[in-house]
Amino acid sequence: MNLTELTQTMHDFVRLKGWYDPDSPRPQTPRNLAISLSLEAAEVLEHFQWRAEPDASDALAGELADVALYLLQLASVSGIDLETAILQKLEQNRGRTWER
Question: Is the pLDDT reported for residue 89 higher than 90?
């Protein structure tokens, strides 16, 4: 499955839950999605708190999936082609140098 197909599958799920409905208690606005993305990323960090490796890879995989889903949705509702944005960013980074 590619990014476009994943994004469509994510949209289908969100519509099924009614979260795109105008009166949804979970409005899927860019602001709310950005907040949710940040919160889920923090949950990824919890798996590494006080240890070098996560305890349960399945739990970490679930948190990473949450981050990816919010990222796909935020890009989509913001009108950003994530695949293009990623490729452009990689091209920009090719010319950059970082301190070691």
Answer: yes
Q: How confident is the model over 43-78, as pLDDT tens digits?
A: 999 999 998 888 778 999 999 999 999 999 999 999
Question: Quick one: pLDDT at residue 53?
Answer: 86
Residue 98 lies in a domain: no
Alpha-carbon radius of gyration of the chain: 16
Amino acid at 87: L
Half-sphere exposure (CA, 13 Å, Cβ side) for 89?
6
The whole domain housing 52 covers 3-85
**Any domain includes 41:** yes
Contact between residue 80 and residue 86 where contact means Cβ atoms under 8 Å apart: no
Domain membership flag for residue 96: no
In one-letter notation, the amino acid at residue 56 is: A
Compute the C-alpha angle 53/66/27, nearest 5°.
150
| Predicted TM-score of the model (pTM) | 0.89
- Count of residues in the chain: 100
